[in-house]
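Quick one, T. Sequence first:
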Amino acid sequence: MSAQGPSFKIASAPVISPRLVPSDISCLVLYEPLRPNYTKQPIRVGTDGGNRFWAPPNRKDAYLRDKAGARLYRWIGGRMTDITAEDLNKKHSPYGVATVFTQWRDTNHLLAVTFDAEKKDVAEENGGWKVLSFEHISQYGTQGTYSSVGVAGDQQQLAAPGSPAWMPQLLPTIYDYDPNPNLPQPISAGLIGELPLLFALPAFSAQPYQLSYVLTNFMQPNRWHKHQLPHGPERGMVVTVFLDPFNEKNSTKPILDALQNGHWGPFYGP
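Structure tokens:
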């Protein structure tokens, strides 16, 4: 970071608003555990600065999907509720998807692609797994700056210090703001970004069997309520966001686009 400070994108007035997320906006979220199938592709090991690290398979046939462990939820107005098993088997209109793997032991990063890694070859579609990255977006009319989560951002760390409510519970500390003693400390406006990635973060904050408990108790409108559960083991997850067929008026692509762009404030507040 230079003495001139980082460059920020400035969101226009219609995109960024201090309002809270409306109580009637909704979507469905499907969580599907995914693990490598090493009989199809041997363990992959990468290097970074002389350090070796494990990497997920880059072939779509080198995965085993845990269909029995799949769980479907409804997110409405900032809160998660369980969906019945019958709804899990229905066809829903997809909005977006991401595959995410933890890498706690080696690099403390989260690796991701914005598609289903069991349906597309990562090497061909994305050029390889990506670490989470960010865009820094100034919140219109305030001094705050959003950190927009994605895999193609131009920043490797948050725009401002992460909230103790979700750092490091949702994001590893390697992503936290790196202070510059020559610059004033920025003000965080919270996290926004690609919805499948935002929904994926809580899935790794506890043990796999605690997924429903965590999602339905600690995800709240515009914020994350910190819990005291330990992180679970290394694992992968496909997270798919669908339009809510039971709420067609308030679950459309433009509405979900506005949600992930911060139109109703942060997804996880500062």
